[in-house]
Specification:
alpha/beta
Length: 299
């Protein structure tokens, strides 16, 4: 910026990036590259803020910051954004499970430190809360406390398996802020309004059983069974047509804007045409008639 004041910038080439910690510009490409945090380009290798385990078509992701209750700082969010970008792009992967390292915390929210820049990548907290057009299901295996941003991450997933010891809260109102990473929007759409208001306005903690009663948790199991249960759910997802899953997720996204059910049903989604003209639909019908397990192609 100082160079812009000290000399006339007209006629100069400016290099601009709008990822990571915000919009940055320089007059030198190499300087711009140095300003941007490194991003993983493959799911192989070591990660600083998470651990990955790949098993066939399933990717298991664990937030790995147990020393701070798996709270996420900007660079952790940035790394997880890259992980889920690569997950979506990998044709061999179809389902992901997200959990937290250790046995008492899924994610306790934002890792706030004085004098540190606070930013999130375009895809949001954990690379999920602001992500658009996801085509593959993500299961939250909530192995402990999911507080604030941690609960918002779980709500952004498609299914939630929770430990009996897990607790959930959106306590932002108690410290003068709001659940701004999707907690307000998702909770008020996923469960009845009054139950959503209870959590959003009071900021109180609820148990896993209460969360399941409210309707935003699918399964509550003993703490020792959380990952095994999540893997069993993943296996069920892997047994059905990946094309049908993609088209179902797309139809949900496209019709969420409609309050009238008939308008939503009549919405001309391209997803339905893709299903009706898909190899998976033909395979499913043949397999049903022949009483055999379908061999999905995902197209």
């Amino acid at each position: 910026p100082q160079a812009m004041h000290n000399s006339d910038p007209m006629g100069k080439t400016v290099y601009v990036t709008a990822n990571g910690p915000g919009t940055r510009f320089t007059f030198d490409r190499r300087a711009t590259e140095k300003l941007n945090p490194p991003r993983p380009t493959t799911l192989d290798g070591d990660f600083q803020y998470c651990t990955l385990h790949r098993q066939g078509m399933l990717l298991e992701v664990a937030i790995n910051r147990p020393e701070v209750k798996n709270c996420l700082n900007p660079m952790a969010n940035y790394e997880l954004e890259a992980v889920f970008d690569l997950f979506e792009q990998d044709p061999e992967l179809r389902v992901a499970i997200l959990t937290g390292a250790g046995d008492d915390t899924f994610c306790a929210g934002n890792d706030l430190k004085p004098n540190e820049a606070l930013w999130v990548p375009d895809s949001g907290f954990a690379g999920l809360t602001h992500r658009k057009d996801r085509q593959k299901p993500v299961i939250a295996a909530v192995n402990g406390a999911a507080m604030g941003g941690g609960m918002e991450i779980a709500l952004a997933c498609d299914l939630i398996v929770a430990s009996e010891e897990a607790v959930f809260a959106l306590p932002e109102v108690k410290v003068g802020v709001i659940a701004g990473a999707g907690g307000i929007q998702r909770l008020s759409r996923q469960i009845p309004r009054k139950q959503a208001m209870e959590m959003l306005l009071l900021g109180d903690t609820v148990t896993a059983d209460r969360a399941m009663e409210m309707g935003f948790v699918n399964w509550v199991v003993p703490s020792s069974a959380v990952m095994d249960t999540a893997r069993k759910v993943a296996a069920k997802l892997l047994s059905v047509s990946p094309n049908s899953i993609r088209c179902t997720l797309q139809t949900i996204r496209e019709t969420e804007q409609f309050s009238d059910v008939v308008s939503a049903v009549r919405h001309p989604s391209k997803a339905l045409n893709r299903v009706l003209n898909s190899e998976d639909m033909l395979e499913g019908m043949k397999a049903f008639a022949q009483k055999r397990t379908p061999e999905w192609k995902g197209r």
